[in-house]
Design goal:
Layout: E1 9-13, H1 23-31, E2 36-40, H2 58-74, E3 79-84, H3 89-96, H4 101-120, E4 126-130, H5 138-158, E5 162-165, H6 173-181, E6 189-194, E7 202-206, H7 209-218, E8 223-225, H8 243-253, H9 257-272
Parallel strand pairs: 1-2, 2-3, 3-4, 4-5, 5-6, 6-7, 7-8
Bound molecules: zinc ion (ZN).
Length: 284
């Protein structure tokens, strides 16, 4: 296959070596020309972790670190871990485990505190938080926003980016303002599973051709992702691990070379402080 001669980053996917394809998915990504991955920990409950304290999330985070190390072995570039607490845990705790929204908030914030420790000592690159993308009670919504704000504060303290899972929207200026108030540059807040246009944070665009074309035409900073979930029970739930390198080839063929550089070199540098070119060992 023709070499791509550019870093190729999937900004958000999951790898599940126990139940899914794990590192084989990273291998497939690399085979198509993918070079860098941001691997996000799976929701704690999907790994059988019913957390009682913040420290209980360590089992989830440590598994992601191991997977990231293994994935880095098969990449010409490398993988980095993004750690946090899935916003869906709010519902899981309140509906199935008898937590009040305030108690759920406390546990989720404690989990984020632990994730921030991993960022502080260099084991993780960024944090992951958000709020439900489906309707919840006012109390649960308020508690979820408190968790999200806590994540933004931690991002400001640690000087790291925060990936967010939120409702479907092209306007997150409310969240951008919360970030600014806490001393976190809104450009370091990344909306995962984003469309091509977003006011406020940086969009991590789902790699559908029409969305990528629009993002490329706009010329604003953006990232590309698949949200591959590596779940054998949901094979068609999201885009597969080959998608980002394939779409990079397609963008190139359509003449969007500048956008490829924006999404795979410039935005990763400005948002996460990572150098996807210097960390590329191809040909050396
Ligand atoms: Zn995801």
């Amino acid at each position: 296959m023709e070499e791509l001669d550019t870093p190729v980053l999937d900004n958000h996917l999951h790898l599940d070596p126990a139940n899914g394809r794990g590192v084989d998915a990273a291998r497939e990504f690399a085979h198509l020309g993918g070079t860098h991955l941001l691997v996000v920990n799976k929701p704690s409950w999907q790994l059988g972790v019913e957390a009682e304290t913040g420290m209980d999330f360590r089992a989830v985070f440590d598994e992601t670190l191991e997977t990231v190390a293994a994935a880095s072995e098969v990449l010409d570039g490398r993988a980095w871990p993004v750690l946090g607490v899935h916003p869906g845990l709010m519902t899981r705790l309140t509906d199935e485990r008898g937590f009040s929204p305030a108690e759920a908030r406390e546990l989720m914030q404690a989990g984020l505190d632990v994730a921030a420790d991993y960022v502080a000592d260099g084991r993780a690159l960024a944090l992951k938080s958000g709020r439900p993308h489906y309707d919840v009670s006012d109390d649960a919504w308020e508690a979820s926003n408190a968790v999200l704000k806590h994540a933004l504060s931690l991002g400001a303290d640690r000087g790291c980016a925060v990936q967010l899972h939120t409702e479907e929207t092209a306007d997150l200026t409310d969240v951008a303002a919360w970030a600014s108030e806490r001393g976190l540059d809104p450009s370091k807040v990344v909306k995962h599973y984003a469309g091509p246009k977003l006011d406020g944070p940086t969009p991590s665009v789902m790699s559908r051709k029409e969305w990528l074309r629009e993002a490329a035409e706009r010329g604003d900073p953006f990232l590309m992702e698949t949200d591959f979930v590596d779940d054998p029970d949901r094979p068609g739930a999201v885009l597969g691990p080959k998608t980002v390198p394939r779409r990079v080839r397609w963008l190139r063929s359509e003449g969007y070379d500048d956008a490829v550089r924006v999404a795979h070199v410039e935005t990763p540098e400005s948002v996460y402080g990572i150098d996807t070119e210097a960390t590329l060992s191809r040909g050396t």
